[in-house]
Amino acid sequence: MAELLADDRAHVWHPYASVTDPLPVFPVASAAGVRLRLADGRELIDGMSSWWAAIHGYAHPVLDQAVRTQLDDMAHVMFGGLTHAPAVTLARTLVEITPAPLEKVFFSDSGSVAVEVAIKMALQYARGTGRLERTRLLTVRRGYHGDTSGAMAVCDPDTGMHHLFTGLLPRHLFAPAPRPRFDEPCAEHDVADIARLLDEHQHEIAAVIVEPVVQGAGAMRFYAPGWLRRVRELCDVHGILLIADEIATGFGRSGELFGCDHAGIGPDIMCVGKAMTGGYLSMAATLCTDEVARGVCASEAGAFMHGPTFMGNPLAAAVANASIDLLLTSPWRSRVRDLQVWLEQGLAPARDLAGVADVRTLGAIGVIETREPVDLRVIQPLLVELGVWVRPFGRLVYAMPPYVMTCPDVAALAAAMVEAVARTTG
Ligand code: PLP
């Protein structure tokens, strides 16, 4: 293990990490159900679902088998000029389960690329429909949409990476983050700023992009479905496309299959990823309406100009099909509802801690927001010592467990989070 760690330190670059001043990493040997087994033999309850993805837990026999079966036919073939049953089945399913009127599916290999694809679709649509000056996007503060340049440019301008790449990113429009909480109504003044921006900049906006109902990696905030409904209406009034980034919310995490379902709206373009393959393989998709697809293809290029090498990967598509089947045939809705209740109960004691600003839950998401940023170097090893895998960032110590986690495991997970926050905040 010492050698592995030494080699890791010598050669491997971890996410959001420095190679000169690295953060601690923990060698993991295997994962099964809701537990990660570290190379030193310790077992951790997994509160992260590997960044929202492993909704069925690890080493699920149905998903393992789906990969094996597909492997007997083919692991990968290019998607230019070829097609195959796993991808076609997945596209049909996605169209069936996502809000109408999404019709067409473009596959890619990660969430960030799915967002790039969505943005490019909106821009090509603007050109194809003769509105050449519509080259900007409008979004809200506190958002997160990925780490590639196009996606970065619509992340929160303060907590995102804008200041690091000043002058290099396209300059988009930012409305305040949605104010009303999830269970509050949306008043007209709550959409006044975004309405004004849409009004003033209508001629140059190609699309509005938002994370429906849950602002994830940028803030872990839950906002009112009524706000999303109003934004849909405003987009319609101004003839502007609405892009729903469901990469974090998709496949049940917030208590509905998609975040848009809370508001009963359909976007013009939707991105999904993460949980689509049950966390097995990297795959994402961008869906759009027939209207958007036709507009894109009416642009000068006559086609949508994108084509990743691993687009539609059969192994990933096969396991995505199995994962979605597994989800839809499981009592996922009641499981997610139970998780919300158990997380709420387990995290409640954090409300009494002086260092805690807020505790909130929605669906299978539980958040402790601290008053000051947590020190990852201190809290991460402590969480491991307490037997759980949770990866805090900034002022957020949060859990998004696999949907199959039991009540005692959620209780242990939440207790460890509260304990770690109690011990590391003032
Ligand atoms: N969009 C949202 C809402 C996300 O939460 C994420 C990742 O956290 C992304 C996009 C980027 O996805 P990926 O990390 O697969 O590129």
Structure description:
This protein is an alpha/beta fold and 426 residues long. It has two domains: 2-59 and 331-424, Aspartate Aminotransferase, domain 1; 73-328, Aspartate Aminotransferase, domain 2. It has 14 helices and 16 strands. Strands 4-12-11-10-7-5-6 form a seven-stranded mixed β-sheet, sandwiched between helices. It is globular. Pyridoxal-5'-phosphate (PLP) binds at residues 110-112, 115, 144-146, 211, 216-217, 245, 247-248, 273.
List descriptors.
426 residues, alpha/beta, Aspartate Aminotransferase, domain 1, 2 domains, 7-stranded mixed sheet, binds pyridoxal-5'-phosphate
Instruction: Work out the count of structural domains.
Output: 2
| Major beta sheet, strand line-up | 4-12-11-10-7-5-6
Bound molecules: pyridoxal-5'-phosphate
Oligomer: single chain
Number of strands: 16
Order of helices and strands: HEEEHHHEHEHEHEEEHEHEEHHHEEHEEH
Briefly note the structural class of the backbone. alpha/beta
